[in-house]
Design a protein that fits this description.
Blueprint lengths: L1 E3 L24 E3 L6 H4 L11 E5 L12 H5 L5 H25 L7 E2 L3 H6 L30 E4 L10 E11 L3 E11 L2 E2 L3 E8 L4 E8 L6 E9 L10 E10 L4
Parallel strand pairs: 1-2, 2-3, 3-5
Antiparallel strand pairs: 4-5, 6-10, 6-12, 7-8, 7-9, 7-11
GO molecular function: galactolipase activity; lipoprotein lipase activity
Family: Belongs to the AB hydrolase superfamily. Lipase family.
GO biological process, one term: lipid catabolic process
Length: about 260
């Protein structure tokens, strides 16, 4: 049984026979997309974990792409009717949009087991544990026999619009050069499954021999990494023409470590 942002008003805090609960089926998976409190946030979705596995994409409260201004959202690509509906309940309706995207992307929407969204964002719950990560949505039941604990909260990030799935990578760069310089470092990944755009790994003071780490949510599953593009810039003309390179770049995929 898949719960697509099950309702909060009149259901949250009620006995299990009144609302959706993991006792309702052999396997219950939940996608929480609008779990902020109803007052004052008008959250329509239930916030506690109530299934065998509970996914909290983007933290489960505010979905990317739902903060657009009303006019741009109502006159949406999908037409005025869908745009109006999305404006009223955008976060709530993201759950079924993620689910329908998940059918097309069997390898997408990996949910990372974590104590909180903040810890997930910091990279504390990366990579997937040995048994792997479940896929949010249509293929969540493939994980049915791998559940160990009683309460499994899973976190992931999604895109702002279709197509929604993102793939998480840990990118570590050790710099080489003669002197420190201010600026930023960007990295793009190339692989058997496609190429990513450039992602900023760090900005500020760049010191040779220092190592910088970032977690990136790429909109493509790179597959086997074949090439990494390294770019740095200091945004202004420096008469000393400093040179900076990458001594090493390490890329770790969350899915298979």
């Amino acid at each position: 049984l898949s719960g697509l942002d099950p309702a909060q008003p009149y259901f949250q805090g009620t006995p299990t026979e009144v609302r959706l609960d993991k006792s309702d089926a052999d396997f219950v998976d939940i996608i929480h997309t609008d779990s902020a409190p109803t007052i004052p946030n008008l959250g329509f979705g239930i916030s506690p974990a109530i299934g065998h596995i509970d996914f909290y994409p983007n933290g489960g409260k505010q979905m990317p792409g739902c903060g657009k201004n009303p006019v741009s959202q109502i006159v949406d690509l999908d037409g005025i009717w869908e745009g109006t509906r999305d404006f009223v309940a955008c976060n709530h309706l993201r759950s079924y949009k993620y689910y329908s995207d998940s059918i097309i992307y069997p390898d997408g929407f990996l949910g990372y087991p974590c104590a909180s969204y903040d810890l997930f964002q910091k990279g504390n719950c990366f990579p997937c544990p040995e048994e792997g990560c479940p896929n949010m949505g249509h293929y969540a039941d493939k994980f049915k026999d791998k559940i160990k604990g009683n309460l499994l909260k899973l976190y992931l990030n999604t895109g702002e619009a279709k197509d929604f799935p993102l793939w998480r990578y840990k990118v570590t760069v050790t710099l080489s050069g003669r002197s420190k310089v201010k600026g930023y470092v960007n990295v793009a990944l190339y692989g058997s499954g496609g190429n990513t755009r450039q992602y900023q790994i760090t900005k500020g003071t760049l010191k040779p021999d220092n190592t910088y780490t970032a977690y990136i949510d790429a909109d493509v599953n790179v597959g086997k990494v074949t090439k990494v593009k390294f770019l740095w810039n200091n945004n202004w003309i420096n008469p000393t023409f400093p040179k900076l390179g990458a001594a090493t770049i390490t890329v770790e995929a969350g899915q298979n470590r």
